[in-house]
Amino acid sequence: MPNTALLRPSSTTVPGSMAYLTGLLRDWLPRQRWFAGKDRPLSDLTPLSVTELSPGCLHVLIDAGDCYQLLLGVRRQVSPRLGRALIGHLTEGPLAGLTVFDAFQDPRSAQLLLERLRHPGTAGPLRFEADPSVSLPAGLAPRLLDAEQSNSSLVYGEEYILKLFRRIQPGVNPDLEVPVALAGQGCRRVPAPVAWFGTTRPQEATLGVLQPFLRDASDGWTLALRALASGDDFTAHAHELGRATADVHLALASAFPAGEHPETTRTASAMTDRLTAAADCVPELRPYVPGLRTAFAALGACDPGPPAQRVHGDLHLGQVLRAGRDWFVIDFEGEPSRPLAERRSAHSPVRDIAGMLRSFDYAARQRRPWRPEWARRCREAFCAGYAARAGWDPRKKHGLLRAYETDRAVYEVLYEARHRPDWVPVPMAAIERLAVRGD
User: Fold this and answer.
1) Distance (Å, rounded) from C-alpha 167 to C-alpha 36?
2) Cβ atoms within 10 A of the Cβ of 276, count?
3) DSSP-assigned states of every residue in 307-372
4) Are 228 and 260 contained in the same domain?
5) Which of 68, 86, 106 is at the close of a domain?
6) C-beta separation of 404 from 354 below 8 A
7) CB–CB of 78/63 below 8 Å?
8) Which among 81, 369, 381, 439 has most CB atoms closer than 10 A?
9) Looking at residues 418-425, what average pLDDT do you find?
């Protein structure tokens, strides 16, 4: 075992130890899927908070351009099963001879996090809290999910899932704030948090949320691709998904009263600015900029639609789960690249609807030949289901829907150009449609 005195934040040796740890992290961080700074040089790393949760297990918040949450294991001997979690070996400094690894992938460390949540309290600046009406069982076996990119999630005993936010921003994360508020509204479309933890240093922020795990659920993206592969119709699912989305929007409007219509001039200006910035980065967009601008310019003359309210912010088929006969909505964090204040502000619910419509198009383009009629039927069914619950029909807000769908497609082009260049043709097909025909 390592000399744990060297790992305590109060120890005078910690600054020297962290200097050697950050040397390893400088090479390791850019290789992680959730690290957002891959497009810029990683020079200085500054530890913002270091807390020893147990001997050889450090909770670290580190400034790497943005603030990131890490759980670092430090041991002399590491199990071979932790091979892909390996960060490196320390050859110098007070911890020389020890191995550093990503402890979120270590069952012992994952169990430690669950125990902290089972027994709320503090550890240095960390605050562990829980719903007192829920009794969390001990000894649930953890496993790390592989699917997520911007965060990490641990499943415990197929009963609970702990979402760990990797990039940390000050304030209450919407993925805690919104599900708690919706639970208070009696909305059963969103799993209610049972425990969570955060920090008070360097500023108050949410670090992780524990919720029930829907063990038999399938996400909408998987179900849509399965339907496409087998030639099955997906419109009934899309219709029910529209109803579920409307249920969540109605609950959000009650939980976070806003009541004002979106300021269309300001919204159009922000959309135009995002288009200009994206076109500067992605040359393929430039020929379509004049046509796309007309979608935003028309916002001022549009029916403003429903009042602004809290929304999901990043709704697509991967953010919904079907368990049994019901749809559930998850991941209310919004787009992690956007400031937290923006993600917590009120927007038109059309923003979420446009995101889901774009997702149907993405799914349809995963198979060749492309089946545009499949996406069109799903879009119609989703909007019809939404209208049946919400009391207004997105299809009758054509100008508004076109603007938000265009804004979403521009975001997709920029994202794909940066992260998945082979996928750029998918949103570019929508860009051409929206710029030329405006439908």
Assistant:
1) 8
2) 13
3) PPB---SS-SGGGEEEETTEEEE--TT--TTS-HHHHTS-B-THHHHHHHHHHHHHHHTTSSS--H
4) yes
5) 106
6) yes
7) no
8) 381
9) 92
3-state class of 374 per DSSP? helix
pLDDT at 375 over 90: yes
The mean predicted confidence, pLDDT, of the chain is 91
In angstroms, the CA 435 to CA 402 distance is 10
Q: Is the pTM of this model over 0.85?
A: yes
Percent of the chain scored above 90 by pLDDT? 77
- Domain of 162 in residue numbering reads as 108-212
Could you give the CA distance from residue 70 to residue 208 in angstroms, rounded to a whole number? 12
- Of the chain, the end-to-end C-alpha distance in Å amounts to 64
How much is the average pLDDT of 94-120? 94
**DSSP state letter for 42:** -
Residue 260: which pLDDT band, with cuts at 50, 70 and 90?
A: confident
Residue 359 confidence class, pLDDT cut points 50, 70, 90:
very high
Among 28, 178, 10, 149, CA closest to 89: 28
Q: Could you report the per-residue pLDDT of 121-178, keeping only the tens digit for each?
A: 999 999 999 999 999 999 999 999 987 678 999 999 999 999 999 999 999 999 999 9
| Alpha-carbon span 343 to 205, nearest angstrom | 15
Between CA 146 and CA 241 the distance in angstroms is: 25
Write down which residue in 212, 237, 256 finishes a domain.
212
Helix (H, G, I), strand (E, B), or coil: what is residue 86?
strand
CA–CA dist 280, 38 (Å, integer)? 19
Q: Is the pLDDT of residue 12 over 60?
A: no
237 with 350, same domain: the answer is yes
- DSSP codes joined into one string, 273-308: HHHHHHHHH-GGGGGGHHHHHHHHHGGGGS---SPP
